[in-house]
Amino acid sequence: MRIVADENIPLLDSFFGDIGEIDRVSGRAMSAADVQNADILLVRSVTRVNQALLEGSRVRFVGTCTIGTDHVDQQWLASSGIAFAAAPGCNANSVVEYVMSVISLHAERRGVADWTKLSVGIVGAGNVGGELAHKLERLDFDVLCCDPPRAEREGDDGQKFVSLEEVMACDVVTLHTPLTREGEHDTLHLFGPERLSALREHQLLINTSRGEVIDSSALLARLDEPNAPTVVLDVWEHEPRIHSELLDRVWLATPHIAGYSLEGKVQGSEMVYQALSRCLGLPARKKAGQFLPEPALAKLSFTSAAEEMDSANIAMRSCYDPRRDDARMRLAMSLPAEERGPAFDRLRRDYPVRREFSSVKIQLKGTSKSMQDTFRALGFKLKL
Ligand SMILES: NC(=O)C1=CN([C@@H]2O[C@H](COP(=O)(O)OP(=O)(O)OC[C@H]3O[C@@H](n4cnc5c(N)ncnc54)[C@H](O)[C@@H]3O)[C@@H](O)[C@H]2O)C=CC1
Ligand SMILES: O=C(O)C(=O)[C@H](O)COP(=O)(O)O
C-alpha cells in the first residue's frame, strides 16, 4: 500500500508506518504526479483535494488531519467512490486557548481589571465556538452565540441562539464558522463593508476561522477609518501570500497557528489513523496520548498571596502567549514581498512545541475556592 502524505503531518511513521510505505511531499506544492501511484492520500489544510489532483490516480482513501474541510471537494470524492475522513474537533481546544489568551491580553491592554466584564459574541457555535462558550460561561462571562444552521436544526429545544447583529454588539466578537461558498448560510465574506462598519473602537474582532470569512479589502478600508475596532487575525485571505498592509493595521497577527498545539496536531493524526484503520478493517490500537512527550513546563505553584487574575494570566501566558507568534510573524513579513509567502509557510512548518493548559499541574496553597474554580475552568489540572 502506498501512502502519500503532507510532510507536516506529525507522527506519520508512528501512526501509519505499518499500514503502508509513506512518501512525504510538500502539502502546498502537491501535484497530480505526486499522487498518481498512491492508494492513500493524507493531507492538512493547504492541499486542494479535487478532480484535478486525483483523477486517474489509484487513491481510494483521503484523510485530512484538520477540522476544516473547505480545501476538499467532498462531492467529487463521493461521486468517484473515494472514502474521506476529517478530524472534527481535533484541535478545537487549541483554538479556544488561543482565543482565551487573546481576550486576557486585550482586557489588560484596555485596563479592564476583571476580564469577565467583557461580553463575548461567538459566531459559529460548533466544536470550537461551543467549547469556547462553555469555558467562558464557567468563568462567568456574558456570552452570546449566533449559529443559524444549529438554531434551525435544534429549534426551541436546543441552546439559545441570537442574531448576528446581537452578537456583533458584544465587546469581543470571535469567528468560528467553516468557510462555505454556497447555501443559505454561506460564510464567504460574511464580514463585508457593512458589518465591519458596525463594529466600534472599543470592540475586539478575532478571526481564527478562515481568512475568506472576512473581506480583507473591506477590513483594510475600515481600519483606516476613525473608531475602527481592534482586530486579531490568525487566518488570512490568500494564504500564504497575505495582505501585508492589513498586517500593519491589526493588533495581533499570527500565521494560521491557533490550532497548532501539539495535542491538537497529534489528535488530528490519530483521528485519521482511526478512520483509515476502520476503512481497511484493521485494528486501531494507537492513541495520541502515547506519543506526547513530557511537557517542558510541568508544574506551576501559587500561594495565598497570589492574586486571582494575575495568577491566571501568568499560567496562561507561560503555556501560550500569542504576542510571541505575532512578533515572529511581523519579523518574517518584513522580508521582501516575494519571500513572504515561503516565510509564512516556514513559520508554520517550524512551529515551536506548544502544549495545552491541561499539560500543566497548578499547585495552589491556601488559595480561594474562586481561584481554584478559575484554573479548573481554564482547563488546568489542579494539585491542591
Ligand atoms: N485557525 C486555526 O488554526 C483553525 C481554524 N479552524 C476553523 O474553524 C472552523 C470551525 O471549527 P469547528 O468549530 O470545529 O467547526 P464545526 O463544524 O464544529 O462548527 C462550525 C459551526 O459554525 C456554524 N455555522 C455555519 N455557518 C454559519 C453562519 N453563517 N453563521 C454562524 N454560524 C455558522 C455551524 O452550524 C457549526 O455549528 C473550521 O471549519 C476551520 O475552518 C479550525 C481549527 C483550527
Ligand atoms: O484544523 C484546521 O481546520 C486548521 O485550520 C488547521 O489547524 C490548519 O493547519 P494546517 O492544515 O494548515 O497545518
TrEMBL record:
GO MF annotation terms: 4-phosphoerythronate dehydrogenase activity; NAD binding; protein dimerization activity
Known EC number: 1.1.1.290
Known partners and oligomeric status: Homodimer.
Cellular compartment(s): Cytoplasm
This protein's record includes keyword NAD: yes
Catalytic residues (UniProt): R210, E239, H256
Name of this protein: Erythronate-4-phosphate dehydrogenase
Protein origin, superkingdom: Bacteria
Binding site for substrate: S45, T66, Y260
Transmembrane regions: none
Residue intervals of the D-isomer specific 2-hydroxyacid dehydrogenase NAD-binding domain: 114-258
Enzymatic reactions: 4-phospho-D-erythronate + NAD(+) = (R)-3-hydroxy-2-oxo-4-phosphooxybutanoate + NADH + H(+)
InterPro entries assigned to the protein according to its UniProt record, in alphabetical order: D-isomer_2_OHA_DH_cat_dom, D-isomer_DH_CS1, D-isomer_DH_NAD-bd, Erythronate-4-P_DHase, Erythronate-4-P_DHase_dimer, NAD(P)-bd_dom_sf, PdxB_dimer_sf
